[in-house]
């Protein structure tokens, strides 16, 4: 069992984020796949978080009935419509709709706002078929709910994904859907993030702990219970994706993402109180707290 290092200011300063100096192409493009008819906002939160941490370009793909409204809500993004079922769930990637976007994206996020297994699996398989094998993936929400039993997808994402489960999703990944692990720990001392990293061969961020397969792990020095608010996990997943897009490696993106997300919450708590700030308000804090993390 390895030790868990605290993400101290010194440790983060020793591993500075890449600072690409070119235009938006140098800072990478993020594609977010998600957004059932009832939950397009999750994609907005994840996508804007990616831009707020410095990604250069943003594309969003959501259920076709909400693609138009989402394009208006996020004028900074290109938005694609995906086929949907009568209940509003995303049915899958559609014939060739995503192929060019997947080939071009520097990072692909799958999951925010998805709410049904079949369409989610079809999207994941399209990503694996059409995105270059070197493209990093961030998997959240239902993309995590279906991962345990999809052995082809599970094998293919080893070494190239960052998983960002909440406690319910961690329970699905561990195969115990009726017993969610509490705050990053099961009943022993081994953080859930570390167990999942070893089981899935990916970097995992869970309840403020980042783990790599095989041992290294870090605990955020920031954050508090007010961060447990609707949409907070979508912001975290998008922030990790944006940091990957600007050139961070998976563990670095996960560490800076969780630390910046936590510090953004701490800043809001100081301004408005520990509870009741909104996930969307975290977005505006992200650029400021990334600068602060460089200079603390
Ligand atoms: N404005 C919005 O559109 C928002 C959308 N959200 C989205 O809402 C969804 C649910 O988020 P919650 O935080 O409530 O999630 P929960 O904490 O209830 O966890 C639900 C998770 O359980 C798993 N799961 C449940 N039923 C499953 C099944 N039949 N098969 C496989 N896995 C299953 C999936 O991994 C799923 O993501 C996510 O897609 C999330 O992105 C929320 O984040 C809130 C904001
Ligand atoms: N009580 C807490 N203390 C510290 N950080 C927290 C707490 N609750 C949530 N967070 C942070 O916020 C992130 C997202 O919260 P979570 O409730 O898991 O989101 P979601 O259900 O939207 O995926 C967590 O991964 C963690 O980094």
UniProtKB/TrEMBL annotation:
Signal peptide: none annotated. It catalyses: (6S)-NADHX + ADP = AMP + phosphate + NADH + H(+); (6S)-NADPHX + ADP = AMP + phosphate + NADPH + H(+). AMP binds at residue 233. The keyword Lyase applies. Its cofactor is Mg(2+). Residues 12-26 have a biased composition (Basic and acidic residues). Its EC number is 4.2.1.136. It holds the Pfam family Carb_kinase. (6S)-NADPHX binds at residues 42, 113, 234. Residues 1-26 are annotated as: Disordered. It comes from the Bacteria. The keyword Nucleotide-binding applies. It is an enzyme of class 4 (lyase). CDD domains: YXKO-related. Residues 7-293 form the YjeF C-terminal domain. Belongs to the NnrD/CARKD family. PANTHER family: ATP-DEPENDENT (S)-NAD(P)H-HYDRATE DEHYDRATASE, ATP-DEPENDENT (S)-NAD(P)H-HYDRATE DEHYDRATASE FAMILY MEMBER. Catalyzes the dehydration of the S-form of NAD(P)HX at the expense of ADP, which is converted to AMP. Together with NAD(P)HX epimerase, which catalyzes the epimerization of the S- and R-forms, the enzyme allows the repair of both epimers of NAD(P)HX, a damaged form of NAD(P)H that is a result of enzymatic or heat-dependent hydration. Homotetramer. This is ADP-dependent (S)-NAD(P)H-hydrate dehydratase. It comes from Cellulomonas iranensis.
